[in-house]
Amino acid sequence: MPLVTPLDPSHDNETEELAKFFNETLGFCPNSVLTMQHRPAISKAFINLNKAVMANEGRVTSALKRMIAWVSSNATGCRYCQAHAIRAAERYGAEQEQLDHIWEYRTHPSFSEAERAALDFSLLASQVPNAVDEIIKERLYTYWNEGEIVEMLGVISLFGYLNRWNDSMGTTIEKGAVESGEHYLGKHGWEKGKHI
C-alpha cells in the first residue's frame, strides 16, 4: 500500500496538461506524478524538469537516456523506475537486442563502446558513495562532449530523485509498466516488490 494516495489526474489542471508528456513516453500518467499533485508546485516543477532533461540536444538519443535511467534505477534497486525506464526505452526505439540484453550491456555486442561508457557512468554516479573517477571521465570524453555529459548526468540525477520518491512512497506500479518489467526484466528476477 502506498505511503500517500495518488490523486485523480484531473486534480490540478496545470499538472494534467503538463502530464500529457507521459502519454508519449509511457502511455499513461505515472502514479508518482499523481502523488506529487498533493503539492502541485512539485508536480509541475518535476514534469518541466523531466521534459528538459529528456530533450535531445546532442547525440544522446532518447533510447539511450532511458537505458541510462534503467542502469541508475537498477543500481539503487527501485523496481518501479526500472520498469518505467525499460518501457520508455522500448517506446523510444531502443534496439530489441539491447532491450533483451540490458543486464549484459558491458559485454553484449549490441552495445557500442560509447554506450557502454555512458551506462558505466550511470552506474558509478548512482552509487553511494559516488564512484565517478578520472577513469570514467577519460572514457566519457573519448566519445561524448561536455553538453552530452551534462544531459546524461541530468538523467541520472532525475532518476536519483525518482528512485527515492517511488521507493519511499511505495508507489503503486501501473499495468503497462508491469508488463514491460516482466517482459524484459523478469528473467533476471524483476518483480513489483513494494509497488503492488
Automatic annotation (TrEMBL):
<protein>
    <submittedName>
        <fullName>Carboxymuconolactone decarboxylase family protein</fullName>
    </submittedName>
</protein>
<dbReference type="InterPro" id="IPR003779">
    <property type="entry name" value="CMD-like"/>
</dbReference>
<dbReference type="InterPro" id="IPR029032">
    <property type="entry name" value="AhpD-like"/>
</dbReference>
<dbReference type="Pfam" id="PF02627">
    <property type="entry name" value="CMD"/>
</dbReference>
<feature type="domain" description="Carboxymuconolactone decarboxylase-like">
    <location>
        <begin position="40"/>
        <end position="120"/>
    </location>
</feature>
